[in-house]
Records
---
Amino acid sequence: MTDSRIYLVGMPGSGKTTLGRQLATHLHLPFIDLDHYIERKEGKSVRKIFEKTGESWFRKTEALALRQATEENEQAVIATGGGTPCFEGNMDFINRHGLSVYLQVPVNEILSRMKAEGIAVRPLLAGKTDEQLYQFFSETLTSRQQFYTKAVLTYASLNPTAAEIFHLVDNWRLKKV
């Protein structure tokens, strides 16, 4: 396994894109947001892809995009989609091709962040009440936990910073040597 690629995994709203961008800058590495990568390749938003082709087709497209982005970048920080690790053997692929970091954030915090961001932009969340959203996030986290916890590193925090993630990765690298 190599740690020249760092994959951030976790629920939507856990900070993968924000922290990934900052971490990549700090490490002087390219940053790839997998959802944006897919949108560029497909010429439409993730939401439109979901609406037109359904989740199953999207997950296959996402797995292909993950493999392409990995192949194209020997070194990078890659922010995966929230469901990416849970389909098509992606978590095992991630762990074979880089260092995985699970950003573990409580459901209440995720819900708060997602509401601030705007729920309507997320295909699986649009139109749900607060109670339905809480139930959805709780159930989704429960079902995805088995994949997220396969990550090499887990960072649990309400407000993680890129510097904290950098130190976590750096300490792991030092122990590995």
---
Amino acid sequence: MARQYIDCREMPSESNCTVAISADSEKELVEAAVQHAVAVHGHKDTPEFRTRIAAAIRMGTPPVEEPGRATL
């Protein structure tokens, strides 16, 4: 199993969140990322949002330097 991550620095955000979440399974990572997005950023937990979160998963570990921001 390869390490995977989602980095808030890659997402559009008014708060400029710098949290990165990593896990060994996609299921665990999506769950943690959705919980963060709902609790901190006010997103709604919908199947469509979970699909967008899953599409933002990167392999490996988050970079130390800030990556470019994408569009969700």
